[in-house]
Amino acid sequence: MQGTWNGTDIGELGRRLQRAHGEVWLHQMKGDPYADVLRGHDEDPHPGYERIRALGPLRRSTTGAWVTADHALAASVLGGTWPRDPVTDEDAHVPVRDAGLGGDSACYERLRASAGSLVTPAAVTAVCERAVAGLDGDFDLVTDLAERVPVDLLAEAAGLSAARRRELARDCAAAAIVLDGLLCPQRLDATRRAAAAVAGLRALLTEPDGNPGPGPREAALPLATAGVRTAAALVTGSVLAVVDHPEEWSRVADDPGHAAAVVTEVLRYDPPVRLHPVIAGADVELAGQRVSRGERLVVLLAAANRDPDVFPDPSRFDTGRPTEPLLPTHVHRLTVPFARALAESVVRALVAAGPRPRRAAPHLRSRRSPVTGHLLSCPLATG
Question: How crowded is residue 301: how many other Cβ atoms within 10 Å of its Cβ?
Fold first, then answer.
């Protein structure tokens, strides 16, 4: 007996995912640059972004989605000056509502307020300093630090025992494909593990009386499913920024507050969320194109934040830029502040502990992660 997943027969789910993956591959083979980006095979996606930018401010991909790499249009879309809705289960290849990612902007503003009492600045600092102090010589930036601190923070906030913390870490890792699964069909085994992990997280993170909300823990599920992967990516990018740019390491050493500028530039230069899909909530005209209600529009955030009309020499890491990066909306109103707080704290703690580590070997990136660009490992050496 094959069973069901999110109300769908497992056999049918496998066929659906295989069909969706095949369709993306076919569009890519026919030369669609957005389909090429969606496959997530390129180590550097920016050449693909630039091919899309060259086609104009708004282009309809052969996949059916509208796509933009234009900063001005992206700002309009993300700024709420036209009606748009978050992606739903019907639009994605993963369980959105089950993972705590369903809801509008007002919902996530409320969740962000409740997260403030769940995850305090003092707790963030303590967790990050303890994680950095526990590093022993050479370490893997991803597995030993970046993926550890958000899980440790949520475990402490939820008051979990050591055994339950291990469950939390396992389920957060399995559920982390949710963001990439919004746009890129994932493997059947990974999708099944994610669904089981989301159910496990919901059980782990409910209120003591069994009620998942409202209350401080109401924000825990979206932080565990989407926030952990977002935080790990931003921590990784921010640490590599000071590792690869010695002058930034020195500036943080002289002024720990400079860590905030480093993280802000990482949000532009190498954002933890590269693509952000929304659904048109009404018929609208954008950049001379008619976008119909219910159609998907994908903002290429990583490309818009390197728009040369807005950011001079956009491929250069520069913490002195006057223009703030564009940020994703909806659930990311909750996850990005969470990730930013952790990234800033880790950078401060690592620089204070010294000495500056160096890359010890090439990093390893996972496939099918066009949204997060997920790194599997990144060895660093301190000797």
Answer: 27
Phi, psi of 77 (to 5 degrees): -65, -50
Query: Any idea how long the chain is?
Result: 383
Strand partners, 278: 86, 297
pTM for this entry: 0.92
Domain of 33, in residue numbers: 4-381
DSSP 8-state code for residue 314: T
Range 108-142 burial, b when 16+ CB lie within 10 A, else e: bebbbebbeebbeeebbbebbbebbeebeeebbbb
Task: Say how far apart CA 222 and CA 97 lie, in whole Å.
Answer: 10
The CA distance from 249 to 241, in Å, is: 8
CA distance 146 to 131: 9
Q: How many structural domains are present in the chain?
A: 1
- pLDDT above 80 (res 116): no
Categorise residue 98: left if φ over 0, alpha if ψ from -120 to 50, beta otherwise: alpha
Alpha-carbon distance values, 275 to 37, 38, 127 (Å): 10, 9, 29
For residue 270, give the CATH number of its domain: 1.10.630.10
Strands 66-68 and 296-300: what pairing?
parallel
User: Tell me: the pLDDT tens digits for 11-26?
Assistant: 677 787 788 778 888 8
